Amino acid sequence: MVVLREGMCPGLDADLVRDLRAADIKTVEDVVSSDIEDLAQRCSVSYKVFIIDWYLYTCCSFTFTGP
Predict the structure, then answer these.
(1) Helix, strand or coil for residue 62?
(2) Domain coordinates of the chain in residue numbers?
């Protein structure tokens, strides 16, 4: 399990990490298994920004080894 921490993706600052923890979201798995729209509302974050940040996080988290 990957624990959420500040700077993992562009919009994940200390305030958002605090808000996510207050919503009982502590890991990437917690985020992925949550209703993102509801989570964005509970953390007062734009749904669109939340989705873009997680897209960037998932795209940048993998190491590609080409042919």
Answers:
(1) coil
(2) 14-60
Q: What is the pTM of this model?
A: 0.74
- The pLDDT tens digits along the chain (67 residues) read 789 888 887 778 899 899 999 999 999 889 888 898 898 898 888 888 778 777 767 665 544 444 4
CA distance 34 to 63: 25
CA–CA dist 5, 11 (Å, integer): 11
53, 58, 61, 62 alpha-carbon torsion, rounded to 10°: -150
pLDDT given at position 60:
59
Short-list 16, 9, 14, CA closest to 45: 16
Q: What is the 3 state secondary structure string of 18-56?
A: HHHHHCCCCEHHHHHCCCHHHHHHHCCCCHHHHHHHHHH
